[in-house]
From TrEMBL:
Alphabetical list of PROSITE patterns matching this protein: HTH_ARAC_FAMILY_2
Protein's UniProt name: HTH araC/xylS-type domain-containing protein
Domain HTH araC/xylS-type: 283-393
InterPro entries membership: Homeodomain-like_sf, HTH_AraC
Organism: Taibaiella soli
Domain of life: Bacteria
Transmembrane segments: 30-52, 58-77, 89-114, 129-150, 162-181, 193-214
Gene Ontology MF annotations: DNA-binding transcription factor activity; sequence-specific DNA binding
Length: 410
């Protein structure tokens, strides 16, 4: 049992570190963080008790009060996903049982430490109250979380699956008091052996919850890595004033080696992925996505992310990522920035026809690029030339065409 607790403590520490270190946090993540903290504290207390404390009453009899917090936190997490305007503190009172149980638990422990006496009646009363209250707690709140999960947007598909799986593990808890009461008679086991088995099952379930949270965050983080826009290494991402009147020569800020490293890294991550969708489903997603991009010009949003795009087109971000990576063979930013470059090329052609000197960087910002470096990088990747080279080529083509027309008419 100590091994299960130790692994659970270690795993919850890793999950906490991943959540805290995540570059992109959502409003609901704070509740997931608190759920992980509660599991970490719960298992840490138990590990300390079973390795240091000698009092058998404390080791095997006292029920830890932190179990009251799991159900409410999961329920709040589901409500926050369902409605981003939801304020968890609004339902602060659902933690009153955990607070009262915590006060009782610490009072009993303090009494034993100070007097060196075991208050058997107080422990029995505490256990009888908390066990059945936690049991009811772990039925009502997971059911409420499931109810919310079924009504959240498809955008939160991964979070919905996480809620389903955590609820599945939490269904174990309400059965443990019955197992504890009947197992001894059914299998001729001593109360101590039954207690160890029941507690091991409970701690294994908590370990399972931390593993689910860990897997969810790792999967989400890998998607953010795939969708992450390459950053310039040598040139700061400077925003330019729309008042600039002359196109300025620009240079590619990322070296070929760095660019190749990004492509290799992204390809490696993509290859590790398993296909969930059929090729036909991926093609349908891409067809819908292209239509939405062209009609709504979603690429003009300079804060566009995989998640925002997923919500805008009402397609699961996992399915969207898979279709982009495996069907289109492009990263999210490669796909989006191609639309932006096409927009700029169309604007440059319009300026050329109207004999207007274009402000290239202003056009880039209007098309959705957020920085000079990313604009330069993707423009050259798409056209094979820098913006200035592209303009000169267009100008030369126009002059040659004009000369030909003049000569022909003459």
């Amino acid at each position: 049992m100590n091994y299960i607790i130790a692994i659970g403590v270690f795993q919850s520490m890793i999950a906490l570190g991943i959540i805290r270190a995540s570059k992109q946090k959502r409003a609901a993540d704070i509740l997931l963080l608190w759920l992980t903290i509660c599991i970490f504290v719960h298992l840490s207390i138990k590990f300390l008790i079973f390795t240091v404390v000698q009092c058998e009453e404390i080791r095997h009899s006292l029920t830890t009060f932190i179990g009251f917090a799991y159900g409410p936190l999961l329920w709040m997490f589901s409500k926050k996903l369902k409605d981003d305007r939801y304020i968890p503190f609004k339902h602060w009172y659902v933690f009153i049982p955990a607070l009262l149980a915590g006060i009782s638990y610490l009072s009993i422990v303090l009494y034993i430490v100070v007097t060196n006496k075991v208050p058997h009646q107080a422990i029995a009363a505490y256990n009888n109250t908390t066990i059945w209250t936690i049991t009811i707690n772990n039925i009502i709140f997971p059911l409420a979380a499931l109810y919310n999960a079924k009504r959240i947007s498809n955008f939160w598909e991964a979070e919905r699956r996480l809620i389903y799986r955590i609820c599945a593990l939490m269904t174990i808890f309400p059965f443990l008091p019955f197992v504890n009461a009947r197992m001894g008679e059914a299998f001729s086991l001593t109360p101590d052996h039954v207690n160890i088995i029941v507690r091991s099952i409970a701690y294994a379930a908590l370990l399972g919850i931390t593993l689910l949270i860990f897997k969810y965050r790792i999967t989400l983080q890998s998607e953010l890595i795939i969708a992450d826009e390459p950053k310039a290494e040598t040139e700061p991402e400077t925003m330019y004033s729309l008042r600039q009147l002359q196109p300025a020569p620009v240079a590619i800020a990322m070296t070929a080696e760095t660019e190749a490293a990004h492509e290799i890294s992204e390809t490696a991550v993509q290859c590790e992925r398993k296909s969930i969708l059929t090729e036909t489903q991926q093609a349908n997603i891409m067809q819908k996505l292209r239509r939405q991009m062209q009609e709504k010009k979603l690429y003009k949003d300079d804060e566009l992310t995989l998640e925002k795009l997923s919500a805008s087109v009402n397609i699961s971000r996992h399915h969207l990522s898979e279709a982009l990576n495996q069907f289109e063979h492009k990263t999210f930013y490669q796909f989006v920035n191609e639309f932006r470059v096409q927009e700029i090329i169309a604007a440059l052609d319009k300026c050329r026809r109207q004999e207007i000197i274009p402000n290239i960087l202003a056009l880039a910002m209007e098309a959705g690029f957020k920085s000079k470096s990313s604009f330069n990088l993707y423009f050259k990747k798409y056209t094979g030339r820098t913006p200035t080279e592209f303009l000169k080529t267009k100008q030369q083509t126009t002059e040659s065409s004009s000369s030909f027309n003049i000569a022909f008419s003459g």
